[in-house]
Specification:
Length: 383
C-alpha cells in the first residue's frame, strides 16, 4: 500500500484529485455565500428578469427593438453590435496590419520609416485615449446637421455618415441565387486549378475570374428578375439628413480605434514571421526566376503564416475583448447595454456579469477554434 502511495504517478493523481475537490468546495462556498447575501438584502436572483420590459431605447440595433422590448431582447441587440464591430475590425485590422508589416520590410527608406513611426506611436498610446481622440477630436468635431458636408449622395455631420442604401422588392432573391451560383463556379475553378497544378505544375490564377463571376452573375440575375432593387438616397431635410443609412460616430470611432491599434501589433507579428523564413527560401525563389512580388506571395508569406497565425489569434481575441471599451464613447455594445443599463435597471449584478463573462468566453473559444482549424492547413505535414 505504501509503495503505491509513494509512486510518482499515484501521487500525481492524488494531488490532482485534491485540487479538484478544493476548487469544488471553493465554488460551493462562493455560491452559497452569494445566495445568502442576496437573500439578506432582499435582492432577487435567477434569470427571470430577462423577460421584464426594458423601458429604454438603443441607438444602434441590427434587429427590431423598442423600449417596450424585454431585457433579453436588449441582450441580443448588444451582442450583435459587439459581433458586428469585432468581425469588421478583425478583417480591416488584418489587412492594414499585413500592409504595415510588409512596409516595414520595404527597401524604400521613406515607406519603412513611416511604417515604423506608425507602429511605435500607435502601440504605445493606450487604446482608451485613442478611442476618445477619434470620437471627440475627429468625428464629433464635424459640423451640425444643417451644415453637413456633402459629396454627391454622401453626407457627413456630427450625427454620422449618411450614404445610399439598397431597398429590395419582390424578386430580390434572384441576386442571392446568382451569388450562390458564382460561389459554386468559383469552387469548381479552384478545384480545376489545384488539379492542373498537381498534374502539370501549371500556375493558374483563380481570383480574376472569381471577381468577374461575383460581379457579373448576380448582376445578370438582377436584370433577368426585372431589377428589383432601388436605392434610398440621403437628402437634406428640415432638421437633419433624411433617407439612406447612417454610420453613427460612436461605431465609426470604435471601429477606427480598434483597427488602427490592433493593426500596429499585427504588423510586428507579420514582420517577425517574414524575418523568420530561412534565407535559403529567398534564394530558392530567386533561382526559380520568381520576381520579388511572386516570391513574397507564393513562397515567403505561406511559410511565414506558420509563425504568424498563433500570435495573430491572440490579437483577434484582444480586439474582441477591447471592444468592451465602447462604453467610454457611448457605443451600445454588450457591456454598455447589458452590463451597464440592464444591470442598473434590473439590480441583478451577479446574473448579468455571469452572462457577459460567458458570452466573451464563448466568442473567444469560437475564435480560437476557427484559427486552430485555419492553422492546421498551414502546418507542416511529416511523411
Amino acid at each position: 500500500m505504501l509503495d503505491r502511495i509513494y509512486d510518482p504517478k499515484t501521487r500525481g493523481w492524488l494531488m490532482q484529485l485534491a485540487l479538484v475537490l478544493g476548487l469544488l468546495f471553493l465554488g460551493y462556498e462562493i455560491v452559497t455565500n452569494t445566495a445568502a447575501n442576496l437573500k439578506k438584502q432582499n435582492l432577487a436572483s435567477g434569470f427571470a428578469f430577462l423577460d421584464r420590459t426594458s423601458g429604454f431605447d438603443i441607438s444602434q440595433k441590427l434587429i427590431s427593438y423598442e423600449n417596450t422590448s424585454t431585457f433579453g431582447r436588449a441582450f441580443w441587440v448588444g451582442l450583435l453590435n459587439t459581433i458586428l464591430v469585432a468581425s469588421i475590425g478583425i478583417v480591416l485590422a488584418t489587412g492594414l496590419g499585413f500592409a504595415i508589416g510588409l512596409a516595414r520590410l520595404s527597401s524604400n527608406w521613406l515607406m519603412a520609416r513611416l511604417a515604423t513611426v506608425y507602429v511605435e506611436v500607435v502601440r504605445n498610446v493606450p487604446l482608451l485615449l485613442q478611442l476618445l481622440f477619434w470620437y471627440f477630436a475627429a468625428l464629433r468635431s464635424l459640423p451640425m446637421p444643417l451644415e453637413s458636408h456633402q459629396w454627391g449622395s454622401f453626407f457627413a455631420n456630427r450625427r454620422g455618415l449618411y450614404f445610399p442604401w439598397p431597398e429590395w422588392s419582390t424578386g430580390a432573391g434572384a441576386m442571392l441565387n446568382g451569388a450562390l451560383l458564382a460561389g459554386v463556379l468559383t469552387g469548381v475553378l479552384i478545384w480545376v486549378a489545384a488539379r492542373l497544378r498537381r498534374q502539370y505544375g501549371a500556375a493558374f490564377s483563380v481570383w480574376p475570374f472569381a471577381v468577374l463571376l461575383f460581379v457579373n452573375v448576380p448582376l445578370m440575375a438582377l436584370l433577368l428578375a426585372g431589377q428589383p432593387l432601388e436605392f434610398s438616397l440621403p437628402h437634406a431635410g428640415r432638421y437633419n439628413v433624411e433617407g439612406g443609412v447612417v454610420l453613427q460616430p460612436e461605431f465609426g470611432a470604435l471601429l477606427i480605434g480598434l483597427v488602427v491599434y490592433t493593426a500596429a501589433f499585427i504588423a510586428e507579428i507579420v514582420r517577425a514571421g517574414v524575418l523568420g523564413v530561412p534565407q535559403g527560401q529567398y534564394e530558392a525563389a530567386a533561382a526559380l526566376g520568381l520576381s520579388k512580388a511572386q516570391a513574397l506571395r507564393l513562397v515567403i508569406i505561406p511559410l511565414a503564416m506558420r509563425i504568424v497565425i498563433p500570435p495573430l489569434t491572440n490579437q483577434y481575441l484582444n480586439l474582441t475583448k477591447n471592444s468592451s471599451l465602447a462604453v467610454a464613447i457611448g457605443y451600445p455594445d454588450l457591456v454598455s447595454v447589458f452590463s451597464g443599463t440592464v444591470l442598473n435597471l434590473s439590480n441583478q449584478a451577479v446574473e448579468v456579469i455571469l452572462i457577459t463573462m460567458a458570452v466573451y468566453l464563448t466568442l473567444s473559444l469560437l475564435t480560437s477554434l476557427a484559427m486552430n482549424i485555419f492553422n492546421a492547413r498551414f502546418a507542416l505535414v511529416e511523411r
